[in-house]
Predict the structure of Calcineurin B-likeous protein 3.
Amino acid sequence: MGASQTRSESVYQELMDKTGFSLEQIKNLKKRFLHLSGNEETISRENLDAIPALANNPIRKQIIEAFFDKRNQRSSEVGHLEEIGFEQFVMVMSHFRPPALRTSVEEREVMRKEKLQFLFNMHDTDNDGVITLVEYRKVVEELLSKSGAIGHEAARAIADAAMLEVASTNVPDMAPDDFYEGITFEHFEQILKGLEMESRMHIRFLDVDTSTMRCGKSTS
């Protein structure tokens, strides 16, 4: 019992150091993790797919897949996991942690870059470092066509036009016959340069609002 508790405390401290979450926040995330997993040690895609609040989200698949993407574990590994444990769950959730009042300008910039990388990874589904037209079409089509307000072909046309505009902005000297390979992360940063990401990108579909979590407050 004592050894197990000591290990848990060690794991929690390590997660605090890596993510910036407080001890109470991590304990609250642990409660939510156990609720989602049915008190199992790992969570599968099926566990997340069963969340009612996520059912009608047009990019549900991308959000769920992000939890199993090794690139979102703050490591150099690529590929996808079949299931994730609590530590991996917390690492993904940390991408949605808003900055604290004491966060420095340098820390905010690092946080912003990590959030942008997370969003980029959601679109770059084949891990090649480029969001291709095919990948971009898929996201835009799902976002627009599933709303019921626009058809599949119209959504596809909008995606194509948007990608063409991005290409003309990022490669202004591109000849008419040149092929635009797609959006790199550097292009992605430029596209979203004026968007404040640090505090707006938070998550509520797990019944854990990372924008309002406070030490000692249960989120279950």
Q: What stands out?
A: Residues 51 and 206 are 7 Å apart (CA to CA).
